[in-house]
Predict the structure.
Amino acid sequence: MLRFNAIAFAFALAALLAGCVSDGRSLRPGDDASAVRADMGTPALVAPLADGGQAWFYPRGRVGRQTFRAELGPDSKLRKVEQVLDEPHFDQVIANKTTREELLRMFGPPVYEMHGSLSRTTDWEYTYYWYAHPWLVSFGIDENGIVTGQTRISENGGPNGRP
């Protein structure tokens, strides 16, 4: 009987924890901010948007290989929830034009931030999956806060560069 209770407890705990890491699929546009918080939890970062809305970021998975971005309007109503660590989103970053703040509003906090010892550049790295394989994208940011470029690297020892 004790073994059964332990197994039941383990399943109940797993179900509870799974509920705490929602990806927002149950949310619908128009839901209010309290519904987003109740479903997805406290965001890792809240970034203000130009129109007065906010982007809430939820890194998920091992080493944050997924980040869900919940976009709320100025009225605190949900516009959309999407997973942003993927090729189509990375393709929206324009070298020598996109700013550090725009990068933050697009992808949320990086997994790694490295500062150059000889240069005045910073690299922001995000880990993600591309067709179930682990990849890393690194964005170079100059001293003026402008993205200078990006590099995408397979973490499986496969070909480097863009998939």
Notes: The two ends are 53 Å apart (CA to CA). The CA atoms of residues 68 and 83 lie 4 Å apart. The longest strand covers residues 122-130. Confidence is low (pLDDT under 50) at residues 1-19.
